[in-house]
Amino acid sequence: MRTENIESAVQRNRDELFRFGTALIFIVGIMLFTIVRTDGGVDGTLLVVAAMIGGYMAMNIGANDVANNVGPAVGSQAITLTGAIIIAAIFEAGGALIAGGDVVGTIKSGIIDPDLVADRDTFIWLMIAALLAAAVWLNFATAIGAPVSTTHSIVGGVLGAGIAAAGWNIANWFVVGQIAASWVISPVLGGLIAAGFLYIIKRTITYQRDVLGAANRMVPILVAIMAWAFATYLMLKGVKKIVAVSFPVAVLIGIVVAAGVYVIIRPHIARMTTKLENHKSSVNELFTIPLIFAAALLSFAHGANDVANAVGPLAGINEAIVAGGISTKAGIPLWVMAVGAIGISLGLALYGPKLIRTVGSEITELDKMRAFCIAMAAAITVIIASQLGLPVSSTHIAVGGVFGVGFLREYIKSNYARMLDEIRDHHAENDPEAVEKFLAEFEEADVTAKGDMLRRMKAQAAEDRLLAKQERRALGRVHRVELVKRNLLLRIAAAWIITVPLAAVLAAMFFYMIRGMLLP
Asked: N or C: which end of the chain has fewer CB within 10 A?
């Protein structure tokens, strides 16, 4: 036993050393590449340092944020961990390089006013401090298994470094307030939408007597809705970086795509159901392919958008050095975009599995139907929020969706256990065989028939057989089911709340350190 423990510890250390060594080679490669591109001097050194920190930030985005896109698919066993990493790496890099955009605001969300920054050098120090602070916080959050928003991390970094550079007046506090509101808006919207879709699936498919017949009718419709959501989502969040697409046009394109998917998927679902047993667990197999596509499309859209968190500030630094001035927007050179794309993919492959497991299986148990609902919530919430002007985080939406389906399952299971207890209490003096017969019929009935059976039973109940109020409360406590890990809920919520202020404090500290080292 002791030998096995030693061997296990050695293997873990070996794996950790390999991951660290590979990450270090990537950072050194960025350093050497940037040195070749610069003319030396202080500016060249600053660009080399900024590029290395940008690569470090990109790896941390891959390790932390990408898990939200593929975690549910892995947790539901729709795809293996290795397959998810390969798909996400390809589509994250593709989204960053193809649709990452020619222009990205380096001052995220107007968080500070760059006109109040004293000079070019101060701006460069500010951006380096912001990048480093966000990367360090993401690294720590990944180590403790907390999925946090990379956008909020870099916003906090820019805010803190900006205040350190130019005082409190540089901050746009209205935007800061919007970001604080998103801590509630994002997970609540994601959780409600995911829970709503899961409830629809249960009512229309798994709670029906003929499960496969219901699946034949509903699954093609659900997949078509998903196709609409992702087509619209990609038009608004990905393709618009290449071609400007208005919201009505994006919705229309989504409808056309959904109609095409419905025509294709309906006969496929019909063929699959002929090979399955008429049981609700069989329906999970119908959602495998949609989940794989969802993981790929979410990764593409994430790469197109969140690569700016890693290389937006780096692009701003590059622009300031090349152009000799401060710019609120900066064109991203291909080499800078490649640093972000490769870094995200590498970070996912090396350090992503930990957060993938956290999101996919540790918060609550996921099957393919539940993972499908979370993917739907991720796309639809972003569409709704973007049109209402609500600030949302894709990380918070996805994790909120996981909690949403978990809490819905808790409610349903507790409620069902309470129903069974009411049935047994009502038949307490009857023949036990009659009670078991009623329970068997209740178990086999669809959701509508169950409701009718309960209503008839309660209508026949004598007043003296009703449970007292105190007994009903006790019964509720007895049958309370916990399918969501509360300790993870508290840990993740705490990490979300402190992301912006902690990143801001770190960035301010790093700014003062950098300025102290570089001032003559």
From this structure: C
Cα separation, 204 vs 194, whole angstroms: 16
Range of the domain at 187: 38-410+484-518
Distance of CA 41 to the CA centre of its chain: 42
As a whole number of angstroms, the distance between CA 266 and CA 503 comes to 49
| Residue 196 within a domain | yes
Task: State pLDDT tens for residues 356-386.
Answer: 988 888 888 899 999 999 999 988 888 887 7
Q: How many domains does the chain have?
A: 1
Q: Which helix (H) or strand (E) holds 386?
A: helix 368-388
Domain membership flag for residue 447: no
- Distance CA(461)–CA(458), nearest Å, equals 5
Burial (CB count within 10 angstroms: exposed 0-12, middle 13-18, buried 19+), residue 31: middle
Residue 463 to residue 455: CA distance in whole angstroms:
15
**For residue 74, pLDDT beyond 60:** yes
Question: SS in 3 state form for 122-135?
Answer: HHHHHHHHHHHHHH
* C-alpha distance from residue 343 to each of 3, 304, 508 (Å): 37, 14, 25
Q: Which of 150-154, 222-226, 305-309, 509-513 has the lowest mean pLDDT?
A: 305-309
Q: Which residues contact 375 (CB under 8 A, 6 or more apart)?
A: 72, 73, 226, 290, 291, 294, 295, 298
Asked whether the CA dihedral 225, 226, 229, 232 is positive or negative, the reply is negative
CA angle 306, 314, 137 (to 5 degrees): 60
Using CB atoms within 10 Å of the CB of residue 13, give its burial: 0 to 12 exposed, 13 to 18 middle, 19+ buried: exposed
What's the N-to-C CA distance of the chain in angstroms? 60
- The single-letter DSSP state of residue 287 is G
- Beta-carbon count within 10 A of 288 CB: 17
Residue 13: inside a domain, yes or no? no
Structure tokens at 464: 């003296």
Task: Provide the greatest CA pair distance for the chain.
Answer: 93
Q: Do residues 409 and 209 lie in contact, with contact meaning Cβ atoms separated by under 8 Å?
A: no
Close Cβ partners of 390 (under 8 Å, ≥ 6 residues apart): 181, 182, 185, 189, 384
149: number of Cβ within 10 Å:
31
Q: What pLDDT does 447 receive?
A: 64
Chain position carrying tokens 């148990």: 365
Are the C-beta atoms of residues 492 and 399 closer than 8 Å to each other? yes
Domain assignment present for residue 395? The answer is: yes
Measure the CA–CA gap between 316 and 99, rounded to whole angstroms. 19
pLDDT tens-digit readout, 140-180: 999 988 899 888 898 899 999 999 998 898 888 888 888 78
> Which pTM was predicted?
0.83
Q: What gap in Å lies between CA 59 and CA 69, rounded to an integer?
A: 16
